[in-house]
C-alpha cells in the first residue's frame, strides 16, 4: 500500500485528525460521517467491520450508534489513537481494534453484516485484492469511497507526497464485478477538492461548500465530483 511507512509513524498518527479535519476540513468530516451513517443504517446490533480504521473516528461513531464493530488497521500508532478516542467517548467496551493486513483479513467468510473502508482505496496498490477480501468476509454489504479520475483532484494529485490512485466509474464497475458485488447505490460529491477545504478557515469554506452542493445538484455534479461513495451488496 502506498505510504505504508509514513502512515504507521507515531507523529503522523498523533496529528492525523487535526491536519485533515480542522479548519474547512470539518466539512469533509461531517460529510463522510453522514455518508457512512446513511449507508450502514440501521446500526443497532449490526455486525460491522471497518477496514483501515485509522484513528477510529468512524469505528467509535458506529459503536455509539449501536453497532457491534471491529476496526482493523496495519498501523499500531493509529490504533492507539483509536483506543484513546474510544475511552474518551466511553465506548471502549462496545468495539474492538485489531492490527491486521487488509489484503488478508483474519475472519471467516460471510462473518459480518457490513464491511466498509474510507480513505483507503486511494492508497491501494492492488484494489481488486482488497475489495475481494472485503466482499469475502461480508454476508451482505460493502461500502467504500474513491477519488475520481478527471476531477479537480487530478489538478494537484501529482504534488501530494504519496499521490492518490484515482478511479473512473468504469474501473469501479469492473472492481465490483470482479469481487462478486452488485452496485446498490452511489453518491458523488465535492467539486472543490479536499485539499482546498483543508487550507481555508471554516468560515470561508462554508459558503464554498454551499456553492459546491448547488453545482452537485446540477447535471454537471457527477462528472465534476472529486469523491464517490459506493454502496454494494454481495451477489447471491
TrEMBL record:
This is Methyltransferase domain-containing protein. It comes from the Archaea. GO terms for biological process: methylation. The keyword Methyltransferase applies. Signal peptide: none annotated. Keywords: Methyltransferase, Transferase. It holds the Pfam family Methyltransf_25. Residues 48-138 form the Methyltransferase domain. CDD domains: AdoMet_MTases. PANTHER family: METHYLTRANSFERASE. The keyword Methyltransferase applies. GO terms for molecular function: methyltransferase activity. It comes from Halosegnis rubeus.
